[in-house]
Specification:
two-stranded antiparallel sheet, 2 domains, Rossmann fold, binds nicotinamide-adenine-dinucleotide, alpha/beta, binds zinc ion, 373 residues, Dehydroquinate synthase-like, alpha domain
């Protein structure tokens, strides 16, 4: 099969980098890295699941090309995106005698990408890093845009920095070792781009979503590249979320983060599963407020059902869900300013907007439609 290769530039005011998307790209990572970084020492950061699968291949390439490279591994899962993992990484980097010519390589999902980016921003006041995302979610979302963070007991991603990578290398073949549940979780973020501002992409997903989730190479390539282009455009226009445009990427996330917090960021509900449910909730609230045609909510429900997502909270997880508790958890979200929660709502599929004046009672009413069914 001919390899399809696509380069998506992320053109920020003070920094420009490329997202390179191609199947089997990881067979040669040295050529693209040498094009942007001159350092010959680097540290690959990965987790206990991904490292045994892919780290050797990467480290061997560095060794053959004359780099001094080492590996730092942390435990897998969102609960390990925390201060103690960050401290462990920083101590290991200092043991390696990291200097400003070194760079970090984030080899893993969003957890590894976020914590590696944060470590890169902090160590020696900042060294370069590149992203090699290995989950669908990381390939379409977290590896692009420079948001780095760790979770705190008070909430998700509350300690972090904006710190852009020097390069993002996306190879869809690594998705083959990912479980079905993780693929569906990543697909939720793809769906999000269609819902935000790209109705034709949503319509394409209605036709080809099953092929994406079955990892058909051409379908995955198109979905990943379209998602990366969408994210790159939004990030270039509003890197630090000042104009409100980047905040649209949080569609489904105000609800989703509350669901994740309720279950203690455990595997009971994955981030992408929470986002998929959160998108439904945002559309329900938009319909309740008279902003969105009910047919658009129905269309979204039908597609999500066809993909295999839960459509109610009891179907999502066996948990004592309570609308009032979820609203309290939303108040801890980063997007709260002057005690006002920010909601990303929709006038329809592909037409999202921000609203900071939503009463808790409307949110509770919408949430209860997913609990008391
Ligand atoms: N920075 C951002 O803009 C941004 C955006 C969205 C999400 N996030 C963050 O991303 C995280 C979620 O990312 P995620 O879903 O990738 O989670 P993850 O990194 O925990 O990966 C999910 C699981 O899959 C395993 N895995 C990864 N790649 C694999 C592969 N190729 N084969 C087999 N197993 C593999 C991991 O070890 C882990 O157990 C959350 O912490 C979320 O807050 C950040
Ligand atoms: Zn997300």
């Amino acid at each position: 099969m001919r390899t399809i290769k696509e380069i998506v530039p992320v053109a920020l005011e003070n920094h420009r980098y490329e997202i390179i998307i191609a199947a089997s790209l990881l067979e040669d990572i040295i050529t693209p890295i040498q094009a942007v970084l001159t350092g010959k020492r680097c540290v690959v950061i990965s987790d206990a699941t991904v490292a045994p699968l892919y780290a050797d291949g990467i480290l061997n390439q560095f060794a053959k090309a004359g780099y001094a490279a080492t590996l730092i591994t942390i435990n897998s899962g969102d609960k390990n995106k925390n201060f103690s993992s960050l401290q462990y990484i920083c101590e290991k980097l200092l043991d390696f005698k990291v200097d400003r010519n070194c760079f970090l390589v984030a080899l893993g999902g969003g957890v590894i990408g976020d914590i590696t980016g944060l470590a890169a921003s902090l160590i020696l006041r900042g060294i370069p890093y590149i992203q090699i995302p290995t989950t669908l979610l990381a390939q379409v979302d977290s590896s692009v845009g420079g948001k780095t963070a760790i979770n705190m007991p008070q909430g998700k991603n509350l300690v972090g920095a904006f710190y852009q990578p020097s390069l993002v290398l996306i190879d869809s073949t690594v998705l083959r070792t990912l479980g079905k549940r993780e693929i569906l979780a990543g697909y939720a973020e793809i769906l999000k781009y269609g819902l935000i501002n790209d109705a034709p992409f949503f319509a394409w997903l209605e036709q080809h979503g099953a092929a994406v989730c079955a990892l058909d190479p051409a379908a995955v390539h198109y979905a990943v590249a379209t998602s990366c282009r969408a994210k790159a455009a939004i990030v270039a226009a509003d890197e630090k979320e000042t104009s409100g445009l980047r905040a649209l990427l949080n569609l489904g996330h105000t609800f989703g983060h509350a669901l994740e917090a309720a279950v203690g960021y455990s595997d009971t509900v994955l981030h992408g599963e929470a986002v998929a449910m959160g998108c439904l909730m945002a559309f329900q609230l938009s319909v309740d407020l008279g902003q969105c045609p009910p047919q658009d909510l129905e269309r979204l429900k039908q597609h999500q059902q066809a993909c295999g997502y839960a459509l109610t909270l009891p179907a999502l997880a066996d948990f004592p869900w309570q609308a009032e508790t979820l609203v309290e958890l939303m108040a801890l979200d980063k997007k709260v300013a002057d005690q006002k929660k920010t909601f990303v709502l929709a006038k329809g599929i592909g037409a999202s907007y921000l609203d900071k004046n939503i009463d808790d009672s409307s949110v509770i009413k919408a949430l209860n439609k997913f609990i008391k069914v």
